């Protein structure tokens, strides 16, 4: 769990079901980063997809229990442990300049 995850969960608790673009509008993180983190939170059982076609996410009972402090989120396996918890910079946009072609020459 990251600081961004906590902010996303808290925003959904406060505002109701949200889309990743809402996280960007609330200055939590970029839409792209929110989409990835919300997907992780779905896999962790803390969020659910309210409507797949609209990208809307809502809290599950487990998500509400986490926010009440009823279990430790550090017990959850994070598929993206190298992400900075509150980073929404260019690192989400792909490889740095020059990195893409380094392994393509034979």
Describe this structure in words.
It is a single chain. The longest helix has 13 residues. Strand 1 and strand 2 form a beta hairpin. This protein has a domain of 67 residues: Orthogonal Bundle (Arc Repressor Mutant, subunit A). The C terminus is likely disordered. The protein has 4 helices and 2 strands. Helix content is 37%, strand content 8%. With 106 residues, it is mainly α. It has a two-stranded antiparallel sheet.
SSE layout and pairing:
Blueprint: H1 3-15, H2 20-25, H3 31-43, E1 47-51, E2 56-59, H4 61-67
Antiparallel strand pairs: 1-2
Task: Write down how many β-strands occur, each being a DSSP E stretch of 2 or more residues.
Answer: 2
CATH topology of the domain at 3-69: Arc Repressor Mutant, subunit A
Describe the main β-sheet briefly: 2 strands, antiparallel
SS-based class:
mainly alpha
The CATH class assignment of the domain at 3-69 is: Mainly Alpha
Q: Give the averaged pLDDT, no decimals.
A: 80
How many alpha or pi helices? 4
CATH architecture of the domain at 3-69: Orthogonal Bundle
Poorly predicted sequence stretches spanning 5 or more consecutive residues:
82-106
Q: What coarse outline follows from CA principal-axis ratios?
A: globular
Helix content: 25-40%
**CATH homologous superfamily descriptor of the domain at 3-69:** Winged helix-like DNA-binding domain superfamily/Winged helix DNA-binding domain
Strand order of the largest sheet: 1-2
Radius of gyration, rounded?
Answer: 15 Å
């Amino acid at each position: 769990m990251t600081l961004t995850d906590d902010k996303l969960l808290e925003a959904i608790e406060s505002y109701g079901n949200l889309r990743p673009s809402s996280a960007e509008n609330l200055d939590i993180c970029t839409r792209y980063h929110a989409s990835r983190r919300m997907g992780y939170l779905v896999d962790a059982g803390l969020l659910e997809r309210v409507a797949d076609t609209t990208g809307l996410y809502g809290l599950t009972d487990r998500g509400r229990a986490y926010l009440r402090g009823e279990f430790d989120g550090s017990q959850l396996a994070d598929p993206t442990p190298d992400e900075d918890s509150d980073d929404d910079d260019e690192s989400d946009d792909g490889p740095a300049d020059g990195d893409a072609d380094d392994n393509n020459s034979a």
